[in-house]
Amino acid sequence: MRPTLKLLAYVRPYWRRAVAALLLLATLVVMDLAIPRLIQRIIDQGINAKDQAVVIQTGLLMLGLSALSAVIAVGNNILSIQVGEGSTRDLREATFVKIHSLSFGDLDRRQTGELMVRLTSDINAVKHLIQVSLRIGTRAPLLMLGSLVLMIRTSPSLALTMLPLLLITSALITVFIVKTEPLFVRVQRRLDRLNTVLQENIAGVRLVKAFVRADHEARRFEAANEDLTAGSVQVMRVMSVMTPSLTIFVNLGMVLVIWVGGLQAIGGGLTVGQIVAFTNYLLTTMTPLIMMTMLSNTWAAGIASATRIDDVLATEPEIADAPDAVRLPEPVRGRIAFQDVSFHYQQGGSDAPVLDDINLAIEPGQTVAVLGATGSGKSTLVNLVPRFYDVTSGRVLVDGVDVRRIMHDDLLSHIAVVPQDSLLFSGTVRDNIRYGDPDAPDEAVVAAAGAAQADDFIAALPEAYDSPVEPRGTNFSGGQKQRLAIARALL
């Protein structure tokens, strides 16, 4: 529950609308509670007394209250939607920014599909939690509490008869919510796995087709899909038992009210109007309980998703600026030195070092190629310079300063990287080349493309540098994507 309360900070900027929604809701509850009392008045003072004026006046009052209630309900719904959409927009943005602040090591321990679920399904579950809480979720307990008070005022003896039934029903709902929350956590984890399989297959669909593995991947997806379906069915099975069970208690309460209340009415202790009013208050008490049961899946899913989102937001990046971090001394020369460097990855359960006692100096202007067998640590060695990972022991120096003491953004601003997988973003060729320097002039873009030997094929494109780039650069060959990535790094 604590992560859910922590996420309420994102509702705080919209507190005025949230309070207004709750005030409208409270007004709506008062009007709902007034209806049974007006029905009692029609029966006792109008029908039984044969007073047509009371019946007409009270009926018109009930119609007016119903119309006003509809207007108030619309206002409450609009405000609740605004609060829910606004707060989850901010939460989605905060989660997105947080993911970009995570280090390579943090991202290694999280799958892409898992993070996609956090940003989509989990955020939507929290949105529904907020909106339901400002609408039905708050209205139901207020109705129930107000109805209990009015039931006692209408007939204390009948209310005492109903008390055990209400306690049992409330206990059942509590047990139900406690039982379903871990089930929803399990469903969201299975959704993570399904999205991971889906993301891998969509990204690698060409490879799947090339190796004729469509049947194999279909079986993988079917297994993950079946696992998710089984978890969802388990949750729905619990709900399918609870709702009819509560309906039985509502009907049992009605029978008890009519039976006990009828005996008292025969003895002159109650009027027919009081029995009808009490019956309405009983329905107003029990119906919210059933409503809360049906909505408990929204609450359970929202609480589970809030916990999962908080898990991302609470992650402290492995790579962070030291309190005494400094900028690289100007002018930056670019001398790189590895001193007694050892490194091993934290995930995978193995402490075997990938790099062990590396000593190396690279002078400014010097070109160095690192050769070695697959898995010998070439990429890891390079990744230590921009501090994508921190060394396990030893030091990496740039111009004599330990990279762990340099402001990370300042360090990265002096390093250009061409990854093995050349990723392009949707947009234009020009946008992709100046991705790292959005304000670069067109002359610099052309010069970088020329240095990367990409200007020839760019000039042959229908719109040259303004030609569109499809997502992940699918409309360019592997070699063309590499040259564009080199031009981006040079610029």
Rg over alpha carbons? 33 Å
Number of helices: 16
| Helix proportion | 55-70%
Q: What is the global morphology?
A: elongated
Portion in strands: 5-15%
Major β-sheet annotation: 4 strands, antiparallel
Low-confidence stretches: none
Q: Please give the alpha-carbon distance between the first and last residues.
A: 49 Å
Number of strands: 6
Short description:
The protein is mainly alpha-helical.
Give the arrangement of secondary structure elements.
Blueprint: H1 2-6, H2 15-47, H3 52-101, H4 104-108, H5 112-134, H6 136-154, H7 156-203, H8 205-210, H9 214-266, H10 272-313, E1 336-343, E2 355-362, H11 378-384, E3 393-398, E4 401-402, H12 408-412, E5 427-428, H13 429-433, H14 442-451, H15 455-459, E6 468-469, H16 478-490
Antiparallel strand pairs: 1-2, 1-3, 3-4, 5-6
Helix pairs in contact: 2-3, 2-6, 2-10, 3-5, 5-6, 5-7, 5-10, 6-7, 6-10, 7-9, 7-10, 9-10, 14-16
Structure description:
This protein is mostly helical. Helices cover 67% and strands 6% of the residues. The strands form 2 sheets. The chain has a 4-stranded antiparallel sheet with strand order 2-1-3-4, covered by helices on one side. A two-stranded antiparallel ribbon has the order 5-6. Helix 2 runs antiparallel to helix 10 and helix 3 runs antiparallel to helix 5.
Annotation keywords:
four-stranded antiparallel sheet, 491 residues, 16 helices, 6% strand, elongated
